[in-house]
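Write out the 3D structure for:
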Amino acid sequence: MRALTNLEEARPLVITDEARFRSTYASSADDVIRFLQRRVAPALVEDIAADSFLAVWRRIDDLPHDPSEARAWVFGIARRCALNALRSAGRQEALAVRIADEPRTHLVDLADAERVETRLDLVTAWRRLEVDDQETLALTAFDELTSGEAAEVLGITPAAYRVRLMRARRRLRDLLDQED
């Protein structure tokens, strides 16, 4: 019996597909839902998130072992699921970012008028941005992805993403200057 115990101790630790999936789901589900909330109608978020994690489960062998790479990979799947859902539903506002999840319970006094005006200018400029620019900025500003992670979501190189980000920032700045 003692020899069997030694064999069991010598066996390498094997992480099952189910354990990898559960770990990935636990660490990224909330982020994926927030990611989807900014891109699709609220009624579609849960369905697309479920489709995304179903795709993750089906492609579990492709899931990167590094947690940050896995997170970006899941975001990429969620993005493609969202695009498929939007295409099939015929929605033209494919990746419009929703700013409506900001709490609006506080009252604005006159001292905050300039801050409110700046926020309104930003919202107006954001809506005038191309969808691709919104997506690029959102991956960095809202989803807090690194250039490498955001590039993986979009299926491009990190250098190409940084160029897109620089151009998107410039276009947003130009639109804000036009508001003045």
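The chain has two domains: 14-96, 102-180.
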